[in-house]
Amino acid sequence: MKEKFDGLIERLLDANVFLPEAIEILERSMIHQVLDRNNGNQCVTAKQLGIHRNTLQRKMAEFGIGNGRPKRKPVVKAGKARKRKSSVA
Questions:
Q1: What global pTM score does this model have?
Q2: Structural domains of the chain sorted by starting position, each given as residue range(s) with its CATH number in brackets
């Protein structure tokens, strides 16, 4: 395994890939593959990657993988609507 990883590092260095780009490539690939293995289950994927689910969703949105963070339903306030007071002079 170490030999394969060292070979990958050599190829990245030969291609003049800087560290931030190499990290992005590794993160994107790992997230994508683990999501595929788990049929898109973000909770299980986050646990297998050792990161929080919110971090996974943020990275998915950043890398354009899947839906990223799911949209929330709008918050509905309970109770009656209040009437505004009119200003009488």
A1: 0.68
A2: 2-63 (1.10.10)
